[in-house]
Each structure stands twice: as C-alpha cells, then as structure tokens.
Specification:
Layout: H1 11-45, H2 55-73, H3 79-100, H4 106-127, H5 134-155, H6 167-173, H7 175-293, H8 297-326, H9 331-345
Length: 358
C-alpha cells in the first residue's frame, strides 16, 4: 500500500531550508559588511573620526554578528533555532533599534521601517518549512508587526524635532498613503503565501514520485533477488538431474556389460550344445534304435557297452556346461542351469537291460 505524501520524511526539506539559510546568511554578510565598509570609507574620505561611531554603525555590527552566527550554525544547529537567530538579528537592527533610540534620525527611521518591514515579513516564509512550521511563521509575523507598531509609536512623536517634521501631518492628510502601504504589505504577504503553498505542493508531489520510484526500485530489486534464488534452485535441480543421468548411464553401461557377458555365456552354451552334446545324443539315439532291432545277445552287449561310453561322454559334457554356468552368478544363468537340470532329470529312464553296469 502506497503511503501518503504528507507522511514522507522531512530530511530533504530540512536540507533545503539549511541551504537557504546558508545562502541568505552569506548574502547578508556580503551586504552588511559592504555597507559597514562604505560607512567607514565615507568617514575617512570626509576626514571624520573613525571611532567612536554612531549608534547606526553599532546596530549594523549587531546585525553582522547575528548573520555570521547564522552562517556558521546553518549546517549544525536545528533549522528553527538558526532561522530564529537570523530573524532576531534583523529585527534588532532594523525594527527594534529605532524604537530604542527614537530621537536619532527619526525621519530616516520611519521611512526605513516602512520599507524594511515589508521585506522582513517575507523572510519567515523562506527560512521555515511551510506546512510543518506554520506556528513559527505566524509567531514571527506577529512579532514583526508588533515590533513595527511599537517602534512607530516611539519614532513618530520624535519626527517634529527633525527635518521631517511635516511627515506625520502629511500622512494624516493623505490616509490613502497608509492604506496603500497596508494594501501592499498584505498583497506581498498573499503572493508569498501562494508561492510557498504552490512550492510546497510541488515538493510534496515530487517527494511522492520519488518515494514511489524508490518503492518500484525496491520491488524490482526484490523480484531480481527472487529470480536469482529461482535461478540458483534451477541450477541445483539441473545438477541433480545431471547426476541422475550420469548414474543412469552408468547403470545402463553396467547392464549392457552384464548382457554382453550373458550373451557370451549363451553363445558358449550354444556352441557346447551344438558341437559337444548333439553328437553324443545323436549316437545314443542311433544305438537305442539299433538295440531295438538287434536280437543277438552278444550284439546287444556290445551296444550296451557303446551306450555306456556315450552316456559317460554326454555326462562329462553336461557337467562341463553346468560348471561353466555355475561360475556366472546371474539369474539368467541360473535359469539355464535349472532348465538343463530339469530336462536332464526328466529324461525317460533307460531300459533295465541298457543301464550301465556297476
């Protein structure tokens, strides 16, 4: 199940805010240090003493210190603390300072506050995370507006004693000036809010797409691992099949050798039967036939002697075949032996007068 973008980690947004703080503080250092150098250079060109300086120079130095601390801490301290340090330094230097010393150049103070209050009010939207730090943004906006109002109430009464004495009366006679200023302030605030909202939505959509991409990559990696595991399993199965095939081939070869041995023995048995047994059997059959026809006792005695000799020779042949088959420990050989013995034992007995003499 895909997670919602609102619960994605904020590490990338915090890194972006830290980078923004680092760039703003670096830019602020360049600007404030340049202004301070121009201030000292002006005093030098117009032969003014470089020290002591006016309160305006000191407030600029205070701003430089806070901006420098922000520059150093932008990558180490929590972003909310660093953002608050930067806003506090700017607030002290440009909005609270006029209220602390209202009698020093009050006309310049009021004009500078009118201009800078608009710019400073934009900063919270840039250096806090929109959506996550809304409480901090609203809090600092309230502080900025209250600081501006407090300093204004302190500076305006001191304006009549300055070259800008007619400024308060002019503002009262032209209320649209203040209405226009408030309108511009609100308009800029709305533009910045809309920009940050759109930027925030785009960043969240981008993070959602990145999260889904990482999810797809993780799923692809898991599938690749599963495929690799299946490949290894198939490799193991293939090895088992190869081993089984080799064993089967070995058994087939052994069986083939056994069959060759059996065939060789059968050929030997066939040779013995054809060349060694058929001749005595044929002679015995002939002698038996002759014994039936012969009536002379002497001739019959001679036939019996010859039959006895032939039976002995046949017995030797059968014994040789049996010994040869007994040497082969194989079921087929044993079957042949059993059949030979059965056939030999089941032969019709000779007549009594043809039995060998003892």
């Amino acid at each position: 199940m895909i997670k919602k973008a609102t619960i994605l980690p904020l590490s990338s947004e915090i890194a972006y805010i830290r980078f923004t703080l680092w760039r703003l503080s670096r830019l602020g250092l360049w600007v404030t240090v340049s202004v301070l150098l121009v201030d000292f250079l002006t005093d030098f060109l117009f032969s003014k003493p470089l020290w002591p300086q006016g309160l305006g120079t000191y407030r600029l130095m205070v701003v430089i210190v806070f901006v420098f601390i922000t520059f150093l801490a932008s990558k180490h301290l929590p972003h909310r603390l660093v953002s608050s340090l930067l806003l506090l330094g700017i607030l002290l230097g440009f909005l609270l300072y006029p209220g602390i010393y209202p009698a020093e150049n009050p006309g310049e103070h009021i004009l500078l506050m009118l201009f800078l209050s608009v710019l400073i009010s934009v900063l919270p939207y840039l250096i806090f995370i929109y959506g996550k730090d809304n409480a901090w943004i609203i809090g600092w906006e309230v502080i900025i507006v209250n600081a501006f109002m407090w300093s204004s109430t302190r500076v305006i009464p001191a304006v009549p004693q300055s070259p800008y004495a007619g400024l308060p009366q002019s503002l009262l006679e032209r209320p649209m000036v203040m209405v226009g200023y408030i309108g511009v302030f609100i308009f800029i605030q709305m533009i910045v809010i809309q920009f940050k909202r759109t930027h925030h939505q785009q960043r969240m959509e981008l993070q959602q797409q990145q999260w889904e991409l990482h999810k797809s990559l993780d799923l692809t990696q898991e599938q690749n691992q599963e495929l690799q595991a299946q490949k290894e399993q198939l490799h193991v199965i293939d090895q088992h099949l190869q081993k089984a095939q080799e064993d089967l081939e070995e058994k087939v070869q052994e069986r083939s050798h056994a069959l060759e041995d059996q065939n060789r023995v059968l050929l030997q048995y066939n040779y013995m039967y054809v060349h060694l047994m058929r001749a005595p059997i044929a002679r015995i059959k002939g002698l038996l036939q002759l014994a039936k026809l012969e009536q002379d006792p002497e001739k019959q005695a001679e036939v019996r002697q010859v039959l006895e000799k032939e039976f002995q020779q046949l017995n030797q042949v059968v014994s040789s075949v049996s010994n040869l088959l007994n040497e082969q420990n194989d079921p087929l050989h044993q079957t042949v032996i059993a059949r030979i013995q059965a056939e030999y034992q089941s032969s019709d007995p000779l007549p009594e007068w043809m039995q060998p003499r003892t």
